[in-house]
Amino acid sequence: MNQDNRLSGVLHILLHMAERQEPVTSELLAEMMQTNPVVVRRLLSGLRARGYVRSEKGHGGGWTLACDFETTSLRDIYEALGSPSLLAIGLRDPASSCLVEQAVNASLSQTFVQIEELLLQRFGAVTLATLSADFCKRRTSCSAVSRKDLADDV
Question: Which intervals of the chain form a coiled coil (predicted)?
Fold first, then answer.
């Protein structure tokens, strides 16, 4: 089953961008993501069209944030990516004439709708600021552990 990891990738990129005051090139972001700069540009183009990021060409150019992390939700970013399919599973034959399959399809379809509504609701409740705060907390925790390890070595 193929997974669409664009949302995860773009969120990763946005958090890296938030850590920098200056524009970030596609090349540098690609290096951080261990991917190709073209992939980064493709990911960010939908966000640029929706006003979440800006890009400047030329020397000193690159990508910058254009959104408020406090109000921009995961759902906003998800929709800017074109609302990719949330579930990798589906119906075998949505228009089957088999009564058994129709019963299965009805149950699964209803469940899929409920799952997607719940997931989108959760995406709407999580902001980029929430992710950024979690990252900062993890970074602080990692730094504290590293400092403690260094002190123990002395």
Answer: none
pTM of the model: 0.83
d(CA 125, CA 83): 17
φ/ψ (deg, to 5) at 133 = -65, -40
In a domain, 1, yes or no: no
Range of the domain at 139: 6-153
Residue 73 lies in a domain: yes
The pLDDT of 59-87, averaged and rounded, is 95
Residue 58: inside a domain = yes
Q: How far apart are CA 4 and CA 84, in angstroms?
A: 8
For residues 46-50, average pLDDT: 95
Q: Any residues with CB less than 8 A from the CB of 57 and at least 6 apart, and which?
A: none
Q: How many domains, the chain?
A: 1
DSSP label of 95: T
Domain CATH number, residue 105:
1.10.10.10
